[in-house]
Structure formats: C-alpha cells, structure tokens
Amino acid sequence: MFDRAGLTQPPQGADVIARAVGALALAALAVIHVVDLPATLGPAPLVGIGYVGIIAAAVLVGGVMITRSHWLTWAAAGGLAVSAMGGYVLTRALPGGFLGDHGDVGNWRCPLGIAALSVETLILLLAVLAAWQARPRAASVPARPRLAVRRTPEYSQHH
Questions:
Q1: Taking the domains of the chain in order of start, what are their residue ranges?
Q2: What is the pTM of this model?
C-alpha cells in the first residue's frame, strides 16, 4: 500500500528509539546553551550569536526528528554537533581567542562545556548509527524499472 502511494513505511523499533534519544539530546544541547547564554552576550557578542544559532538549530532539528525519519535530519543533527564541538575547541585552543572570546582560552574543564561535549558526542554517534543502518536499506531498494523506448534510426539505409 505504501509503495503504490509513494510513501515510506512507518518507522519502527530501533529508529523510533534513536530518534527519541536524538531529540532529547538536541533538547539538552539547547538547554545547556541557554544556561550559558547570558555569560556570552556581553563580552563576546559573536559567541552569543553562535549560541543563539545552536539553540535555534537544536530546537528545529529536534522537532523535525520527532515528526519524521530522514537521513537529512540526522545529517543536520550531526553537523550541528560537529559545529558546536568545533566552536568549543576553537575558543579554548587558539591563543588569541576565537570570535573575540579570550576568557575561555585554556579553560578545558568548564562543567557546561563538558556536558555539551558529552551530549554532542551522543548526537554524533546516533547520526553515524542512523547512517550505518540506512545503508543496507538503500542498497536493498530495487531500482525502478525503466520503460523500454523504441528509437528510430537517425539515418536511413535507403538512398
């Protein structure tokens, strides 16, 4: 029935659980950045703007993840996690700071940062797992039959 209508089958089992855990992890990521947001708005407004972007993206991707199962949703979640991890590393590793944030250089033991890294790692692992599980399905989906097209000769043998 679903194939004829061009719809995908409803998600089941592990996919539903992975999406639920992923959506909760994205919500946790948003909450962590909301808690830390006031400290980033004053001295380094660019970092604060990045936090707002992370919060908005986490809420949006988490909402989409709840409603449907699609590889693009997992790609967006994984990309968000990698971007946030990159921001954490850059604000602490660059000697002159990153985006005007000089206060966190060398501050690798920030409790909220460690919590965010933990949640981002979970999101990234779930995204990789979703991609791995989608691989056999994509390989096992039969190609659509192509209709044979009768071609007329481009030139005639008769002179």
A1: 13-133
A2: 0.75
